[in-house]
Design a protein that fits this description.
The complex is a heterodimer of chains A (305) and B (303).
Chain A (H helix, E strand, L loop, with lengths): L1 H27 L4 H6 L5 H10 L6 H13 L13 H36 L4 H15 L2 H15 L12 H30 L2 H8 L4 H39 L4 H11 L2 H29 L1 H5 L1
Helix pairs in contact in A: 1-12, 5-6, 5-8, 5-10, 5-12, 6-8, 7-8, 7-10, 8-10, 9-10, 10-11, 10-12, 11-12
Chain B lengths: L3 H6 L3 H38 L1 H4 L37 H37 L1 H15 L3 H12 L3 H11 L2 H15 L2 H8 L4 H13 L1 H23 L11 H8 L8 H28 L6
Helix pairs in contact in B: 2-4, 2-13, 4-5, 4-7, 4-8, 4-11, 6-7, 7-11, 8-10, 8-11, 9-10, 11-12, 11-13, 12-13
Classes of the chains: A mainly alpha (305), B mainly alpha (303).
Chain lengths: 305, 303
C-alpha cells in the first residue's frame, strides 16, 4: 500500500504540473495580456512599456515558471476588473462554491444510497423502477434547465425559496438540489450493483444462517462493504460538482468561483481564469487521488497492477 | 439468486427458478423495449432535422416584432398559425425547434465520431504496444480526466470564438477519455489471443495486425460508448450555448433558445419549457438506445 501510495503521489505531482502548463498556455493564448492591461486607447509605446514592466517580453517558459512559483505562494496576480488581487478574489468566492458542491454531494448521497440499497434488495420491484426512472431522467435533463424550472416552480409560483443570490441557506436549496440530482444516478447505480454483489456473498448467507437480525446484516455486513466504492465515486463527483457549479452559479447568480470564472472568460480577465482553472484542476487531481487510494485499499489487485 | 430475503425465506426451487427466468425475460424484453422506444423517438427527431426545410411552417430566422411572444396552442390568445408560439423577436418557435434539432444532432454525432477516433487510436495503441507507450498514454488519459470539461471548454471556445465548428472541435478533443479507457483494456485482452500471435508469426506488419486482427474484435465496444457520448455532447453544447459561449445567435440551438427565453420566465415560462423538454426527450432517447444496445450486446456491463 505504501509503495502504491508513493507511486500515486509521483503521478499526481506530474499530472498537476502538466495541468498547470495547460492552464497557463491555454489562457495565455487567448489574447495579449499587455494590450488588455493597457486599456482600449493605448498607443504602441504604452503597450510596449507595459510589456516591459510586467515582464511580458520574457520567454514564455520563464513567465510560466514565474507564474507557477507565485501561484504556489498564493499570489495569482491582479484582476483587470476587481480592486482585489486574484488570490483575495478567489479566497472570497471559493467558500460559496465549496458549500454549494458539498450540499449537492450530500443531497445526491441522501437520494442515491437509500434508493440504491432498496432497489438492490427488491430488484424489478416498483421502487427499483422508480429509482431507475430517477436515474434515467437525471442523466437526460440539462442541469441549467432544471435549475430554471425549479426556480419558476418553487421561487416564482409557490414562493417557497428565494430565486437567486447566495445570502442565506435557503438560497442554496434549489442550486444544491439541481447540482446533486445530476450526480445521483451514478451513485445510485453503483450502490445498487455493489449491494447486489455483496448480498450474494457467502458471508451474508452465513450471517443470515446464524440468525442475525436481517437489518443488522443489511447495515453492518452488507452496506459497509458496498459503500466504500461509493465513497470513492463521491470524491470524484465532488470534483465534477465544482466544475458543474459554473453553470448552476450562473443560473442562480451565486457569487462563487464558477460565476467568477464565467464573468472572467467573457471579459478575458486572464489572471482570474488561470487561477480558477488551476485551482479547480488541483481539486480534481486531489479528489481523484483520494478516490484511487480508497479503491486500492479496498481492492488489493489494483495496488499491484 | 441475488435476493437474499427470497433465498432464506422461501425454499421452493421451482418457484425461485421460475421467477429467475421471468426476471431475465423481463430484462431482455425491456432491453428491446428501450431500443424500440429510444430508436423510434430518435428516428423521429432525425427525420425532423433532415427534412427541416419541408417540415418547418415558417422561416426560423424571420423576425417580426409585431407578433413577439405569441403563446403556444394550449394557452389563451394563441395564433393557430404559430403552433408553439413565437419568441421575443417574433420568430416561429416550432420552426426554430425543428432547425435546432439539426444543430444538436450534428454536434452530438460529429463530436462522438471525432472523440471516438482520438480515443480509439490512443486506447488501441496503448493496449497493443504496452510498456512505455502505455505509460505515456495512460498519463495523457489521467491528465485529461483531471481537467474540468465545462471550464476548459468555455475557456477554449472563448479563445477561438463560439461557433458550431468550434464547439464540435473543442468537445471532440475533450470527450475521448471513455473510448480510450475501454479500447485500451479491450485491446489488452485481444492482444493475447492465439489468432493475433498467428498473424504475427506469419509476418504480418504491425498496422495489419492492429487493423485486421485487433480492431474488428474490439470495435463492438464503440457503439455503446458512442451513443452515450452523443448524449453527453448534446448536453454540453446546450450548456455552452446557454452560457453564451457555444453556438451564436441567430442560430436556433436549443440551449441558446433557453438562454434567450431566460428573461421572460416570469410571465412566459413556456419559452424555456419547450426547448428544455425537446432537449430532455432527445437525450433520453439517445440514452435509452444506448442502454438497450448495451443490455442486448454485453449484459455483463450493465452496472
Amino acid at each position: 500500500m505504501l509503495n502504491f501510495t508513493i507511486r500515486r503521489i509521483i503521478l499526481v505531482v506530474l499530472v498537476a504540473l502538466t495541468v498547470s502548463v495547460i492552464a497557463f498556455f491555454l489562457v495565455r493564448m487567448s489574447g495579449d495580456l499587455a494590450t488588455a492591461l493597457a486599456g482600449e486607447d493605448a498607443n504602441a509605446q504604452e503597450i510596449a512599456d507595459i510589456r516591459k514592466i510586467y515582464g511580458l517580453d520574457r520567454p514564455l517558459i520563464v513567465q510560466y515558471a514565474d507564474w507557477l512559483f507565485d501561484a504556489l505562494r498564493g499570489d495569482f496576480g491582479e484582476s483587470l476588473y476587481f480592486p482585489e488581487t486574484v488570490g483575495e478574489l478567489v479566497a472570497m468566492r471559493l467558500p460559496t462554491t465549496l458549500l454549494l458542491a458539498f450540499s449537492g454531494l450530500v443531497i445526491s448521497l441522501l437520494i442515491g444510497i437509500p434508493f440504491g440499497v432498496i432497489s438492490a434488495l427488491k430488484p424489478d420491484s416498483w421502487i427499483d423502477r422508480i429509482s431507475m426512472s430517477i436515474a434515467v431522467a437525471g442523466q437526460a435533463i440539462p442541469t441549467f434547465w432544471m435549475g430554471l424550472m425549479l426556480m419558476v416552480l418553487f421561487g416564482l409560483i409557490l414562493r417557497w425559496t428565494p430565486i437567486s443570490g447566495d445570502e442565506t441557506w435557503q438560497h442554496f436549496i434549489l442550486p444544491a438540489f439541481t447540482l446533486g440530482y445530476y450526480s445521483t444516478p451514478p451513485i445510485m447505480r453503483l450502490t445498487r450493483s455493489g449491494m447486489l454483489e455483496v448480498l450474494s456473498a457467502d458471508y451474508i448467507r452465513t450471517a443470515y444462517a446464524k440468525g442475525l437480525q436481517p437489518l443488522r446484516v443489511l447495515f453492518k455486513h452488507a452496506l459497509r462493504n458496498a459503500v466504500i466504492p461509493v465513497v470513492a465515486l463521491a470524491s470524484v463527483q465532488f470534483g465534477h460538482m465544482l466544475s458543474g457549479a459554473i453553470v448552476i452559479e450562473s443560473v442562480f447568480a451565486m457569487q462563487g468561483i464558477g460565476y467568477l470564472a464565467w464573468e472572467s472568460i467573457l471579459r478575458n480577465d486572464i489572471a482570474v481564469i488561470q487561477a480558477i482553472l488551476l485551482i479547480v484542476c488541483l481539486f480534481y487531481v486531489g479528489l481523484t487521488f483520494i478516490s484511487d487510494l480508497l479503491n486500492a485499499w479496498l481492492d488489493p489487485r489494483i495496488r499491484v497492477s | 439468486m441475488s435476493d437474499p430475503s427470497a433465498s432464506h425465506q422461501k425454499l421452493d426451487p421451482d418457484k425461485a427458478l421460475r421467477s429467475n427466468i421471468t426476471r431475465r425475460l423481463f430484462r431482455r424484453m425491456s432491453a428491446h423495449n428501450s431500443i424500440l422506444i429510444g430508436g423510434t423517438v430518435l428516428g423521429a427527431i432525425v427525420f425532423m432535422a433532415v427534412f427541416a426545410p419541408l417540415l418547418a411552417p415558417h422561416d426560423p430566422f424571420d423576425q417580426d416584432l409585431s407578433r413577439r411572444l405569441l403563446p403556444p396552442f394550449w394557452m389563451e390568445d394563441n395564433n393557430p398559425k404559430y403552433i408553439l408560439g413565437t419568441d421575443n423577436l417574433g420568430r416561429d418557435y416550432l420552426s426554430r425547434l425543428i432547425y435546432g434539432a439539426q444543430i444538436s444532432l450534428m454536434i452530438g454525432v460529429c463530436t462522438a465520431v471525432l472523440s471516438g477516433i482520438i480515443g480509439s487510436a490512443l486506447g488501441i495503441t496503448a493496449g497493443y504496444f504496452g510498456g512505455r507507450t502505455d505509460a505515456v498514454i495512460t498519463f495523457i488519459i489521467t491528465t485529461r480526466l483531471s481537467m474540468p470539461i465545462v471550464l476548459v471548454a468555455l475557456a477554449v471556445v472563448a479563445l477561438v470564438g463560439g461557433s458550431l465548428h468550434a464547439v464540435i472541435l473543442v468537445l471532440g478533443f475533450l470527450l475521448w477519455d471513455r473510448y480510450a479507457v475501454v479500447m485500451r483494456s479491450a485491446t489488452q485482452q485481444a492482444r493475447n489471443m492465439d489468432y493475433v500471435s498467428a498473424a504475427r508469426a506469419i509476418g504480418c506488419p504491425t498496422w495489419r495486425v492492429v487493423l485486421s486482427e485487433i480492431f474488428p474484435n474490439v470495435v463492438n465496444n464503440l457503439i455503446v460508448i458512442a451513443t452515450f457520448e452523443v448524449a453527453h455532447a448534446i448536453l454540453l453544447e446546450a450548456s455552452l450555448s446557454f452560457l453564451g459561449l457555444g453556438v451564436q445567435p441567430p442560430d436556433p440551438s436549443w440551449g441558446l433558445m433557453i438562454a434567450e427565453g431566460k428573461e421572460f420566465l416570469l410571465f412566459d415560462p413556456w419559452v424555456i419549457t419547450i426547448p428544455g423538454v425537446a432537449l430532455s426527450i432527445l437525450v433520453l432517447a439517445v440514452n435509452m438506445l444506448g442502454d438497450g444496445i448495451r443490455d442486448v450486446s454485453a449484459p455483463e456491463n450493465r452496472n
